[in-house]
Design a protein that fits this description.
Helices cover 38% and strands 33% of the residues. It is of the alpha+beta class and 108 residues long. It has 2 domains: 57 residues, no CATH class; 48 residues. A 3-stranded antiparallel beta sheet has the order 1-2-3, with no helix packed on it. β2 and β3 form a beta hairpin. The mean pLDDT is 96.
């Protein structure tokens, strides 16, 4: 059986605030790439709940964070449709993404 790894290295300041985030996914061609934010969710089937890690560096600009959220909402719609086949619900998620973009002032 093949195994694959995705790694995150987080440099923290004295107050445990991320200063630098570097990640690698060698099978995807990513090695030592720096990023300003990461949101990771995993499913705990036993507890029937999502567990999350949300990190961003001190230098992450608010306008980029808003765009990050917008793109996550859009991709959630795509993932939901792929996972469930429910296009109508996926479209509602995408509509929310557009509403969010408008309300947060990032509408293009």
């Amino acid at each position: 059986m093949k195994q694959s790894e995705i790694n995150f290295n987080i440099e923290l300041d004295e107050n445990h605030i991320p200063e630098k985030i570097v990640w690698a996914a060698p099978d995807g061609g990513v090695v030592g790439a720096e990023t300003q934010a990461v949101m990771l969710s995993v499913w705990d089937g036993g507890a029937q709940e999502a567990l999350r890690i949300d990190l961003w560096t001190k230098e992450m600009p608010v306008d980029e964070m808003k765009r990050f959220f917008h793109q996550i909402f859009l991709s959630m719609g795509d993932s939901y449709q792929s996972a469930t086949g429910e296009e109508d619900v996926a479209d509602e998620i995408r509509k929310f993404a557009e509403y969010f973009a408008d309300r947060s002032g990032i509408k293009m």
